[in-house]
Structure formats: C-alpha cells, structure tokens
Specification:
It is a single chain. By secondary structure, the protein is of the alpha+beta class. Among the domains are: 256 residues, Catalase HpII,  Chain A, domain 1 (Beta Barrel); 56 residues, no CATH class. 27% of the residues lie in helices and 16% in strands. It contains 13 helices and ten strands. Strands 1, 2, 3, 4, 5, 6, 7, 8, 9 and 10 form a ten-stranded antiparallel beta sheet that branches. A hairpin with a 5-residue loop joins strand 6 and strand 7. It is globular, with a radius of gyration of 26 Å. The termini are far apart. The structure holds CIS-heme D hydroxychlorin gamma-spirolactone 17R, 18S. The site of CIS-heme D hydroxychlorin gamma-spirolactone 17R, 18S (HDE) has 26 residues, from strand 2, strand 3, strand 4 and helix 9. Its EC number is 1.11.1.6. It is an enzyme of class 1 (oxidoreductase). Belongs to the catalase family. One of its GO terms (biological process) is hydrogen peroxide catabolic process.
Length: 485
C-alpha cells in the first residue's frame, strides 16, 4: 500500500473538497448527496460523550511506579513483588463538583485516580487528595452530590443546600474542616498528597491478610493557594492547574510521589477504638506508622486529551491478586457505581480502549456488545467449561475466604463520635491557619438562608472544639446555642 498525505473520509476514500459544500450552482441550495458533508456534520454532533457526573474537570499524565521497599510479607501483588520493579501507570487528577469547563482553583477535594498497568492486570487506586470523606454510606452519595451541584430552579450553586446537608450529616465535619482549611485549594496538582482513603485488604502468598491504607506523599512538598489568588486565577486562567502540570512535564520537571501504607493486623479491626472501615476517620499514625512502598513519577503528557484523559475509566473494583476490598460501606457502593458509570458514559467495551486495556493479554469468554473494536475473541472457544483448551481459572488466585457475621438490616455505623478527629485537626492548626479556616467557613456560610441551619452547624463546630464553634458563631454574628454548651 502506498502512503501519502491524502485527506480521506472515515472509510478511507480520498476527499476531493473539504472547504466547499456541493451546491446547485454557486448560490445553492446544498445537495444532500454531498455525503462527505453529511458525515462530517454528523460526527461533529457526536464529539462529546457525557461528562463524568462528578470529577468532570481533570488533567492526566503517564508515568511509572517503582518499588523501593519489600512488602511481600503483606501482599502477593505482582507489581510490588521486587524492589526496583517498574510498572507503567496513568493518573487523572480532577476537581469534584464543577463541570468540564469549570475553574481549577476552586475549593474542592481533588481526585487522585491512578491506573497501574501490572503484569497481572490493571490495578486502579481511585482516591482523593484527602484521607477522609464527607459521608460513610454510599446510599447518601447522590443526595450529597446534588447539594454540591446546581440548584434545579436557579441553576446556581446553593450554599443553603450545602450546609443543610452537612449540618444534618455530622459525619461530614472532619472532611468539612479539612476542605475549608488551607488544603482545600492546592497550589498545583504537583503539590498535594493523594490518599486511597478507604481501607483495603492485602493478602500474601500464604493467604494471610492485613488491612491497608494508602498515602501518596508529594515529593514536591504540600503547598496551598491563597484564597485571593485562587479567586483571581479562576477568572484569569481557569485551567491553571491543568496548564501547570502539562508544562512541568513538558519541561522535564517530572513530579513524583512516595507511596506509603499503614498496615493494620486483621484482628485489630475488631477492637480498635473506632470502626477502622469508617471513611470519615483516619487511623492514628502512632498506632499504624507509614511504611514506604515505592515511588510514582509522572514523565509523559497525553498525546490526545479525549482519547487518554476523557476516555479513561477508573474503578475501585479494578483489583489484582493480593489486593482486595474491605467492608467499608462507601467502598462497597463504589464497586457498583464506577463500571456502571463507564458503561453509560463510554460504552460496554470501555475496557478495551487503548488507555484502559491491560498491558497483559485479556482472555475470557465475554463477547460482543456495542463498539467491540478488537477481534472479539476471533474464532476461539466462547464458553466454559470446554474441551478445547480455552483459558482456565487460576485456583491459587481465588479470593481468600473471610468470615461474615451479623443480622441483615439497613443500619448505621455504631460509632458516632463525629467530633474528636475534627477537633484534633483544628487543634493541630496554627493560629494563622485557624483564622483562615474560620474566615473561609464564615464566608461560605453567610449566604445560607435559614438561621436554623447555621445554628445547627455551629453546634457541630462547637462540639469539635468550643473555640472553633465560638469563632464561627461570632463571625456570623450569632450565638452558640445554649443546649450545646
Ligand atoms: Fe467517586 N465517582 N464516588 N469517589 N470518584 C466517580 O465515576 C461515587 C468517592 C473519585 O478520574 C464517578 O467514572 C460514589 C470517594 C474519583 O475518572 C462515579 C461514591 C472517593 C473519581 C462516582 C463515591 C472518590 C470519581 C463519576 C460513594 C475518594 C474520578 C464518573 C459511594 C476515595 C475518576 C465515573 C476519574 C468518579 C461515584 C465516593 C473518588 C459516578 C457512588 C470516597 C477520583 O461513578
């Protein structure tokens, strides 16, 4: 076949004219038989896939992960099996609430979604830049996100809804305190940590398990952005973080993170002072110190934003042998939500797209579906069990058995101390940090329409730390309600 630079239709035929539609005479009308025009307009109409319902605005990069510490006594995960082992990876950073075109420098958690292309399949670690979350049961997520998105009548952000929900969901206080503090607006995507947030389970070759939490510590250090600069940049350069990441990588200034883990023996989960699967809590670093695992380096920008960043699909359910989930109720809900979102947003065969497909060979009996663009298993055997040497299961990678107990019912976590950890976080802050935190909260709560909501929220701040609650009340020109004192 000869190679040339011919413009072609999507079916490969040379295009004769890409500047002038075919018309009856120079004044038209336009002829419907200009099939190239029809195809071009029709394809254009379909250029957008639905944006992610949360985490719509994002930036991605390629890189690698290198093991620096031998943790094989805890996990048989192949990509962690040897010091020095390198695994290619892709990361997508994102804001949560804004739309695809929204500003980068807003106060919001940042998504920190990592895809490791391991030799035993893809492993996705779909975390945030905060170690905790606003709620701890998946059933509350759609309501929570409604309050973060636009009001259905005004199509504006609605602070009354935000604080109404938070004040009625006191488990959010820890994450609210974190978000309203300095870390709520990172200086750049390179200057923030990432967290797996949930508890996961690691299992070693002997089938012994431990609970694990992930921390990606930014080697660049953590730096945050002043609120006034953030507001200015949101107007002047809404893509500031996206641009910063792209330029850093383009200029060879490769950002990196050190991955560390906290390890908890399985039995400790039964006796720890709170439920360690509750994603609104952090584990004390004194009880479970950070242990180094390896280094993640971002060294290559995507070639094509849509193909690589927009079409990337991450799920906390994309796991490899040696890494399993925990009973965390949020994590359990996410195991359904993500691939469901991908099937809706990208399509039934989203796993086979170049950015998503594993680097090892996929061999299974799944066939067909919309946009099946690989060879669909060719003529190979398409059912199991079979007598034709089709791919067979690997018994040693059967999930380690685990005990389950209890009565099935819709029930809350039984630990309801929503105040100690947010209070500790407040007390950890310097006076300047506390002042900025209080100023941010007061500014955010001022527009709340009902005083009742403000008073309810003030009580939560007060219960975390009397000074915290009192300062917010004063800032809002209100008094701490008597019943909480
Ligand atoms: Fe997500 N989340 N989430 N989330 N999330 C999505 O997945 C969801 C949660 C996170 O760059 C969606 O493909 C539910 C916690 C990141 O592509 C959706 C619950 C954490 C990203 C979804 C949570 C996250 C998402 C939107 C409560 C941090 C972006 C479209 C049970 C630990 C990934 C999509 C990317 C994206 C659902 C809570 C992080 C709808 C139901 C907790 C980083 O499926």
């Amino acid at each position: 076949m000869t190679t040339n630079n011919n413009l072609t239709t999507s079916w490969g035929a040379p295009v004769g004219d890409n500047q002038n539609s075919m018309t009856a005479g120079s004044r038209g009308p336009t002829l419907i038989q200009d099939v190239h025009l029809l195809e071009k307009l029709a394809h254009f109409n379909r250029e957008r896939v639905p944006e992610r319902v949360v985490h719509a605005k994002g930036a991605g990069a390629h890189g690698y992960f290198e093991v620096t510490n031998d943790l094989t006594k805890y996990t048989k995960a192949d990509f962690l099996s040897e010091v020095g082992k390198r695994t290619p990876m892709f990361i997508r950073f994102s804001t949560v609430a804004g739309e695809l075109g929204s500003a980068d420098t807003v106060r919001d958690p940042r998504g920190f979604a990592v895809k490791f292309y391991t030799e035993e399949g893809n492993y996705d670690l779909v975390g945030n830049n905060t170690p905790i979350f606003f709620i701890r049961d998946a059933i509350k997520f759609p309501d929570f996100i409604h309050t973060q998105k636009r009001d259905p009548k005004t199509h504006l952000k609605n602070p009354t809804a935000v604080w109404d929900f938070w004040s009625l969901s006191p488990e959010s206080l820890h994450q609210v305190t974190y978000l309203m503090g300095d870390r709520g607006i990172p200086a750049t995507l390179r200057h923030m940590n990432g967290y797996g947030s949930h508890t996961f389970k690691w299992t070693n070759k002997d089938g012994d398990g431990v609970w694990v939490k992930y921390h990606f510590i930014a080697d660049q250090g953590v730096k945050n952005m002043d609120v006034n600069l953030a507001a200015k940049l949101a107007g002047e350069n809404p893509d500031y973080h996206t641009e910063d990441l792209f330029n850093a990588i383009e200029n060879g200034d490769f950002p990196s993170w050190t991955l560390k883990v906290q390890i908890m023996p399985l039995e400790d989960a039964n006796t720890y002072r709170f439920d360690p699967f509750d994603v609104t809590k952090i584990w004390s670093h004194k009880d479970y110190p950070l242990i180094e695992v390896g280094k993640m380096v971002l060294n290559k920008n995507p070639e094509n934003y849509f193909a690589e960043v927009e079409q990337a699909t991450f799920s906390p359910g994309t796991l490899v042998p040696g890494i399993d989930v925990s009973p965390d109720k949020m994590l359990q809900g996410r195991l359904f939500a993500y691939h469901d979102a991908h099937r809706y947003r990208v399509g039934a065969n989203h796993q086979a797209l170049p950015i998503n497909r594993p680097r090892n060979e996929v061999k299974n009996y799944q066939r067909d579906g919309q946009m099946r663009f690989d060879n669909n298993g060719g003529g190979s055997v398409y059912y199991e069990p079979n007598s034709f040497g089709g791919p067979a299961e690997v018994p040693e990678h059967k999930q380690a058995a685990f005990p389950v107990t209890g009565i099935a019912e819709s029930v809350a976590y039984d630990h309801n101390d929503h105040y100690t950890q947010p209070g500790d976080l407040y007390r950890l802050m310097s006076e300047e940090e506390r002042t900025r935190l209080v100023d941010n909260i007061v500014a955010a709560m001022k527009p709340v329409e009902l005083e009742e909501i403000k008073l309810r929220q003030i009580q939560h701040f007060y219960k975390a730390d009397p000074e915290y609650g009192t300062r917010i009340a004063e800032g809002l020109g209100l008094k701490v309600p008597q019943e909480v004192k």
